[in-house]
Amino acid sequence: MYWGVDVGSTYTKICAINKNKEIIDTKIIPTIVNQDEIVKEYLKDKQIEMLVSTGYGRHMIEECFSCPIISEIKAHAKAAFHFDNSADMVIDLGGQDSKVIKLDLNGGFIDFKMNDKCAAGTGKFLEIAASRMGLELEKFSKIGFEATKELSISSMCAVFAESEVISLIAKKESAANICYAVHESIASRLASMAKKFAIKSDNIIFSGGGALNPFLLQLLSKKLEKNVVAAKYPQLMGAIGSALAGYEVSNEI
Amino acid sequence: MGVHEHRSLLKDIGVDVERHAKMMEMGLESYKNQFMTQKNRPEAMKYFDWFMSEIQGQRIAEINELRKKKRPSIGAFCIFVPEEIIVGAGGACFGLCGGSPATIADAETELPRNICPLIKSAHGFKLQKTCAYTQSSDFIYGETTCEAKKKTWEILNKHHPVKVMNIPHMKREKDLKLWKEELVEFKEHIESITGEKLSLEEMKKGTKIVNEKREALQRLDRLRSMNKDIIPISGKDGLFVTQMGFLDDPVRYTQKVNELCDELEKRVENKISVFEEDTPRLIVLGTPFAPPNWKLHTAVETSGGAIINEESCIGHRYYKDNVNLDEVTTEDELMQKLLDKYSAVDCACFTPNAPRIDKILKMYKDRQADGVIYYTLSFCHTYNVEAHLVTQALEKEGIACLVIESDYSPEDAGQIKTRVEAFLESINFKKKATSFKKKQN
Ligand code: SF4
Ligand code: SF4
């Protein structure tokens, strides 16, 4: 079994693949303290041929298991290539950051861009806005389809953007229209990062928690004039990529 | 530090002393920061630290003493200058400053922007009069290795005497014949400076001295790179010692390098390494590192990698071959042996240049390296173009390789570090995976 562990800021994702690169085990657990112990416990009786870790907490796993690590960028590139080897870009919208990765067509990456420290272009901002509206995130992501006005939020900062949301609420804009505005602002940011690269293929892969949001997907496709498709396992892409890297290196050595 | 005591001498040889003092201060400062702060340095590095502090002081005084005795004093930018002949005539042969970004702006008043920084830096040193070695040279020995150099000599010659040696770009019989004639002519030129005939014995003696210097450097190379788990000296120090071989008196230098090697030998015996276990071992290929160009070594060795040797001209290409003096009884025989040595240099100015690739592959295996960095100066077309063939050969062997093209400006230091870090990460990935797998099975 080839295992990948992606320790993200909110969730830790675990995935195993077999010799045929088929996904045979997945697990998503909240990231808390002593995460390495929890991962260790989970893997206790498992058969492990290779274990590779990625994500911001990868060094913790590296120390605990003395296993190899790779960067998230590399992990995402590997996973994207695995599912669609014609795509040349991955857009990843996570809880705390977002990135755009330009892929080469051999399963590696050419370059990448990341949002700066601010939360405005991240999943966190969606959460903040949803809770302002008193809506579940899942519901919030759907009502955008019913928007009747193309409102927009101009602020580049999550704090000010939040106050813009509040003022829209005060103006008695409908929830659907506000939802549209919030999604529009995130999609714009992602699209402008993506446009810094020349995109050759028609397919762009969208991963991370953000890819579970169908309205965002639609807006992004429109803005980029490309076919933006959600990854098969959006949240697991980092873990899958790590497992794949482990599989490859295992066959090399 | 030494430079101030030598002010009047520096002034006499036409150095712009104010500007020079400032440059030296900057150089020594950066040396201190990059070298003196390294942990666990060999004791014997003290000599080289001292030499650095006297680099444009005492050594310059020594060279000018020789000049007073009409001994030749020759500056060069390439390892094709037959220093055996100069040393045989009792003179000094040295590399000129050409590794600093501080002189490039001046050079660009006469030279185009898009030629290699080495040539521009060197030309700038002459225009600024801030290299005491250039100022101390009877002439600069140029060669026809690349277009940038070849044409720059004509301009440099307006400011300082330049003598050009015609180095062929192929190694066919007729080319080698020409090269040998050039060697003979070089000797005659040296004789015109001293006003004396250079005897075979003198030339043999000079050759012996330089052979011994190269042997000491080979020994240093072996100690740096041939022990899988122990690297007894940092790559940066190794590079610096090699760089000083182009400036110091060869006999004293050989002795000091051997003293350093004695210490390193003990370190290897006692398993004292200046790097942690499992630090990726890297070989650097490509263009020369004229001092104070320490940018790449600093980037690598502050990112968790170790440089175990340089294939460059300030490196292996310089000392790999010796002149075989056995059974040399005539001047013509000696010239032939010199030619044998110099024509074995695998500079990218030659076409074809396959022996270089074979050497690199062998070097990688012998030294049990983990990866290779192909380093070229911007606009050095020979090495930049040749990178394609070299990296292709490396790739075929599954050898990890990173190509870095850079000049002397500090601007890309951060970017280089990021790329080096990513490269080291991928090497470490494989190393870690191998040991993880071992543990599992
Ligand atoms: S690279 Fe070639 S031209 Fe440059 S110093 Fe070396 S031998 Fe001379
Ligand atoms: S580094 Fe290249 S371009 Fe520069 S002088 Fe040497 S051979 Fe010429």
Helix-strand string of chain B:
HHHHEHEHHHEHEHHHHEHEHHHEHEH
How does the overall form of chain A come out from the CA principal axes?
A: globular
The portion of residues forming beta strands of chain A comes to 15-25%
Largest interface summary = A-B, 19 and 14 residues
Please work out how many helical segments of chain B DSSP would assign. Answer: 19
Helical content of chain B stands at 40-55%
What is the CA–CA distance across the termini of chain A? 16 Å
Structural class of chain B: alpha/beta
**Morphology of chain B:** globular
Low-pLDDT segments of chain B: none
| Straight-line distance between termini of chain B | 60 Å
Percent range of helical residues of chain A: 40-55%
* Small-molecule components bound: iron/sulfur cluster
Structural class of chain A: alpha/beta
Model regions low in confidence, pLDDT < 50 over at least 5 residues of chain A: none
Task: List the SSEs and their pairings.
The complex is a heterodimer of chains A (253) and B (441).
Chain A: E1 2-7, E2 11-17, E3 23-30, H1 35-43, E4 50-54, H2 58-65, H3 72-83, E5 89-93, E6 98-103, E7 109-114, H4 123-133, H5 137-143, H6 158-170, H7 175-195, E8 203-207, H8 214-224, E9 227-230, H9 237-252
Parallel strand pairs in A: 1-4, 5-8, 8-9
Antiparallel strand pairs in A: 1-2, 2-3, 5-6, 6-7
Helix pairs in contact in A: 1-2, 3-9, 4-6, 4-7, 7-8
Chain B: H1 7-12, H2 17-36, H3 45-53, H4 58-68, E1 73-76, H5 83-88, E2 92-95, H6 104-107, H7 117-128, H8 132-136, E3 139-143, H9 147-156, E4 162-165, H10 173-194, H11 200-225, H12 235-244, H13 250-269, E5 281-286, H14 295-301, E6 306-310, H15 316-319, H16 331-342, H17 354-366, E7 371-377, H18 381-396, E8 401-406, H19 413-440
Helix pairs in contact in B: 3-12, 10-16, 11-13, 14-19, 17-18
The complex binds iron/sulfur cluster (2 copies).
Residues 116, 118-119, 145-146, 148-149, 287, 377, 380, 382-383 of chain B line the site of one iron/sulfur cluster.
